[in-house]
Specification:
- The chain has helices at residues 78-83, 102-108; strands at 16-18, 20-22, 28-30, 36-40, 55-59, 66-75, 90-91, 97-101, 117-126.
- By secondary structure, it is mainly β.
- The protein has one domain.
- A hairpin with a 5-residue loop joins strand 2 and strand 3.
- The chain is globular.
- The mean pLDDT is 86.
Length: 127
Amino acid sequence: MPSVTWTSQADFQTWSLTNLNATAGGALEVSAGQQSGTGTSPVTQPTGGWANWGLLTITCPHAEGTVVLAQIRSGTTSAECTASGWSDYFGANEDGQILLDVDAWRLNTPAATYGRYIQVKLTLKRE
């Protein structure tokens, strides 16, 4: 099963962060003085010969009192992925983990663009 992880401060240098900071421990936090922030990953494709994504696990360590939401978009090419619309929000459990069955999302959202390229957007909000 293809996977990608972002677990260090350096990993988040490839993300577009708005009102979020990546900590030295590899977590995301809402910037001081802000109520919410977003982080958008680079477009990613599966490695190891996999053609498509199956289960997407997103883990976002975060400060207590912060809600984590995720959206995804997909496409058959990188350009198609960035041109497609974002999914509805998926919520995280209290540990900041989101388990997303990409195949089920695709089947339940037939109008969505789908392919081997995927992008993730996280929204963190202070409660």
